Amino acid sequence: MVEQEELLRLEGISKDFFSNTVLQNVNLSLKKGEILGLVGENGAGKTTLMKILFGMPVIHETGGYKGRIFFEGKEVKFPTPFDALDAGIGMVHQEFSLIPGFTTTENILLNRESTRYNILVEVFGERIETLNRKEMRSRADYAIGKLQFALDPEMLVSEMPVGHKQFTEIAREIVRENIKLLVLDEPTAVLGETEAVILLDSVKRLAAEGISVIFISHRLSEVLDTAHKVIVLRDGAVVREVESQKTSIPQVAEWMVGREIALENRGGKKISRETPTVLKVSNLWVDMPGEIVRDVSFSVKEGEIFGIGGLAGQGKLGIPNGIMGLFPAGGRVDFLGSRIPLGNPRAVLETGMAFVSEDRRGVGLLLAEPLDWNIAFSAMQIQNKYLKSFLGGLFTQRNDREIARLAREYIEMLDIKCVSERQKAVELSGGNQQKICLAKAFALKPKLLFVSEPTRGIDVGAKKLVLDTLHRYNEEYGTTIIIVSSELEELRSICDRIAIVDQGRISGILPPQAKAAEFGLLMVGQVKKAAEYE
């Protein structure tokens, strides 16, 4: 890289948050047009550091921070995110902040709409100006064009697949005329492989235009491929700063966690033909926005870890959402020999099935409630567990002592980083929120557990812990587990069989030991070639 002018410098940034020291004397610098990869385990302090930079209210409300921030050579301390935006800093957060009832264009230009004069302005002032929708569409098209992704400018956010929402978030930031620094917090976590490639190419083009980028991701291959340099955070401190070309994925992973990390290959256990079938899905269709589920049929044996993979939007996420009753569905699903009612989530849960959704904030968590309440809630509602009965069951009351004991058990088992079981779910990092969703499902002691994208947004160390826990849960309790994941290697490391979904149908089912090329052929609809592959 040609020597460039420094855009951002952080000096000695420290922060105490909810009685925890989450940042310790962090220093970093970023040049104009440079891409900085910021990596670390969940709870390492990455998101908190960006919240400090962006002037988020939660930082000021919890005592502020120590250290200094320099932007374009001047010391800054943004009192609000609006001040950071005005300075030219855009941030795409880990969780979406779009308005569901607005279109792509309306979300991209929110609070920056193009307007036209009308006569009523003379009486009522500028607030009565009319929207200039033609100019708004032109500006939105420009931002979408820079991303080179096929977004429909008139589609409602509520009807979008999750990947399109992510691109809309990014388009909203780059449409700003004065954008100088773009912070991307786990931008590819919700994307399939093809979408992720498009996004990363867009990031490189933005950097070539002089926009600096801070790229936070747990997908280390993407970080090393995209970023010019990498900074590794561990326990709130910078442990390494290195040029991306001078390191490797295993080395960065070891710096992140302080130990060597490797996913074991534990899948592929022999399933006997005599083993009972616990789940049989026949001709399933699901009406889920962004997912194609047309005619899915498969069966799962008792005690099996069954994987479902495929490219984004081809139906893998729609399958569990349809079976569990979260979206309209048809066809037939039999569980333990009995037909389950589609479209009735409670009835499905009462049969002994459980679901960890890919949408942890929208479906999985009660964000404003404490962790113990989150973990025990479904078991209380569906199974009447953790309740004390009075007058022969006429009255019931929460058994807070048992709920706390349950929560502490899973906090220890899943290594959930928190102050206590009474901390609110909203205060945890994304990866730790995902672990709470798993604990909530485990508390039901299900006979069959659907887990959708179990390691999305989770760092490499936590990923191994989650997969180890699922494997151990399957071994110790004999629970049948169906894992839906965008990461093929993750499925191959733990599953006994893996089904690939393409165009809303199962294109094939392979053992985890099958060659990667066979899986790839199934993903792109080349079923015959995959079957013949040697």
Describe the secondary structure blueprint for this structure:
Elements (H helix, E strand, L loop, with lengths): L5 E12 L2 E12 L3 E6 L5 H9 L2 H5 L4 E6 L2 E3 L4 H7 L1 E4 L11 H5 L6 E2 L4 H4 L5 E2 L1 H15 L14 H13 L6 E5 L7 H16 L3 E5 L3 H7 L2 E6 L2 E7 L5 H9 L19 E10 L6 E9 L3 E6 L7 H6 L5 E7 L2 E2 L5 H6 L2 E4 L3 H5 L6 H13 L3 E4 L4 E4 L1 H14 L16 H13 L5 E5 L7 H18 L2 E5 L3 H7 L2 E6 L2 E6 L5 H8 L3 H6 L2
Parallel strand pairs: 3-10, 3-11, 6-9, 9-10, 15-22, 15-23, 18-21, 21-22
Antiparallel strand pairs: 1-2, 1-4, 4-5, 7-8, 11-12, 13-14, 13-16, 16-17, 19-20, 23-24
Helix pairs in contact: 6-7, 14-15, 14-16
Structural key phrases:
single chain, 534 residues, alpha/beta, Rossmann fold, 4 domains, 6-stranded mixed beta sheet, globular, disordered C terminus
Would you write up a description of this structure?
The protein is of the alpha/beta class. It folds into 4 domains: 1-88 and 179-260, P-loop containing nucleotide triphosphate hydrolases (Rossmann fold, 3-Layer(aba) Sandwich), CATH 3.40.50.300; 98-177, no CATH class; 262-352 and 446-534, 3-Layer(aba) Sandwich (Rossmann fold); 364-436, no CATH class. A 6-stranded mixed β-sheet has the order 6-9-10-3-11-12, sandwiched between helices. Strands 18-21-22-15-23-24 form a 6-stranded mixed β-sheet. β19 and β20 (395-398) form a beta hairpin. α6 packs across α7 (162-174), α14 packs across α15 and α14 (371-383) packs parallel to α16. The longest helix has 18 residues, at 460-477. The chain is globular.
